[in-house]
Task: structure prediction
Amino acid sequence: MTTQAKPAPGRSYLAIPGPSVIPEAVLSAMHRPAPNIYEGELVDMMPGLVADLKRVARTKHHVAMYISNGHGAWEAALSNVLAPGDRVLVLATGRFGHGWGEMATGLGAEVEVLDFGRSGTIDLDQVNARLQADYAHQIKAVMAVHVDTSSSVRNDIAALRDVLKAQDHPALLMADCIASLGCERFEMDDWGVDVMVTGSQKGLMVPPGMAFVFFNDRAEEVRERLPRVSRYWDWRTRAHATEFYQYHGGTAPTHHLYGLRTALDMIHEEGIEQVWRRHTTLARAVWAACEAWEAEGSLRLNIEDRDLRSHAVTALRLQSPHATELRNWVQENLGLTLGIGLGMAAPGEPAWHGFFRLGHMGHVNGHMIMGMLGGIEAGLSALKIDHGPGALEAAARVIGGEG
Result:
């Protein structure tokens, strides 16, 4: 008796929504002996690194760097603009909106959450009504996630600023761009965002370990009025460093900085507008395949409206436990890793096995996306999970410029 060989050996493909695929050039840049942290090339490259980070964020204002993940960026941002007892309005469209709100609660803020569910965008009319009712301007900040990685919804941050303007409300507009920066169009200054947070491990194509808080002069004025900010989280010294150690509050993440320098060079060589267009095309190819699969069976895109879908991550539903079965099959047989469903059901519940996510962010191109989609098609077929035909052809048409 013969058994079919598993075609998994070879280069694996991590298709989760972060950490994203790390370019070989970034890995090579990081593969070096520890550098001198007191003088030399690492010290000399920092001003240019700061300038190029701000180019990606589309801001002329300030950036503070931290050795942390995105949760550290959340806390750093909040620590510089909130005092205990301050009220904030959190606009939640998935797990990560709630997570940022929980961080604010831990810092002593009074957190009010407007929850718009797990499959839709922010209702601007509700936000407008809430701000209109806040005639005493007790709300100090409005917090929103540009792309919630759990639900894959893309929120309209510029429209939020318009709502604040319409009410002449002084609250800071704070945006989480951890899943979107370097993947989605984001215009910090033009959209009137006061504070933006992101991490190194998604669109910036660098391993996890660095986080960034961008802020404008208006947010800096709020920081100046606070009676106390932890010396470590205080963004003033980091953003206005006069000595190298001040950028990171001590020893720098040396090898991450070399990787980041290379990643920024790659982004600017391609051009940020082209980076956005590439992500849009590849996302549309993913959607075309998924919409074809939807024609039969239980597979569904979590966000129905194309205009509200992220260009960096796609969340999907599949009758439980087929999502987990599919993830396991492609991992074991193809070396393809898909993302778990996050925040859609509690771990341990049967429903948890009915969600999965596809990451298409950062260092990705057409053949990688076609390979991912082909792997999913193989898994659906092998597991005899009902799905509609023509998915790969639909994706190929988009990438070929026909769709």
Remarks:
- The two ends are 46 Å apart (CA to CA).
- The first strand starts at residue 13 and ends at 15.
- The chain has a mean pLDDT of 96.
- Residues 149 and 179 are 6 Å apart (CA to CA).
